[in-house]
Design goal:
Helix content is 42%, strand content 26%. By secondary structure, the protein is an alpha+beta fold. Helix 4 (111-120) packs antiparallel against helix 5. It is globular and about 45 Å long.
Length: 153
């Protein structure tokens, strides 16, 4: 049962938020990956589910949870990760969660991702979500995390 105080803050409303980020520090990809591994453990405790696509320079993340928890998480991300330039792409209320747990896909330049890169990126084959419109970002995430061939890797 959600307390009345949390209910007043939107804890009963399921929210989905998608953002993109650019790593502003050089040679920080490993640090970013470790940070998100820690975040995965913390998010599981707070009821947040998520899908994250990451490489050394950019990220796309979709987070789901109560309105209150999602707002608190995006505030922490902006505050605690000053090396990331964050841009919120979409926030919406949803009836059901899309993700089960905290999913992470580390994007490499390997051929296994080339089909998704070519299909979903409008500006070449480099992973740069800042060059993509919102619809391309969300369709890329859907394809990346629902394609059975990629999920078997």
């Amino acid at each position: 049962m959600i307390s009345d105080e949390r209910n007043k803050n939107g804890a009963h409303i399921l929210t989905s938020l998608t953002y993109i980020g650019k790593n502003r520090e050089k040679d920080n990809g490993v640090k970013m990956a470790r940070t998100f591994e820690i975040a995965r453990r913390n998010n599981e405790k707070s009821g947040i589910t998520s899908a994250l696509a990451i490489n050394d320079n950019y990220i796309i993340q979709n987070i789901e949870g109560s309105r209150l928890d999602v707002n608190e998480l995006i505030t922490r991300i902006i505050t605690e990760r000053p090396h990331l330039s964050i841009h919120v792409v979409e926030i919406k209320e949803v009836e059901v969660r899309k993700w089960d747990g905290f999913l992470i896909r580390y994007l490499t330049s390997g051929p296994e991702y080339e089909v998704h890169t070519l299909r979903h990126f409008s500006a070449g084959t480099d992973f740069n979500p800042y060059l993509m419109p919102k619809d391309r970002i969300t369709s890329f995430m859907d394809a990346l995390f629902t394609d059975e061939l990629l999920n078997d890797m």
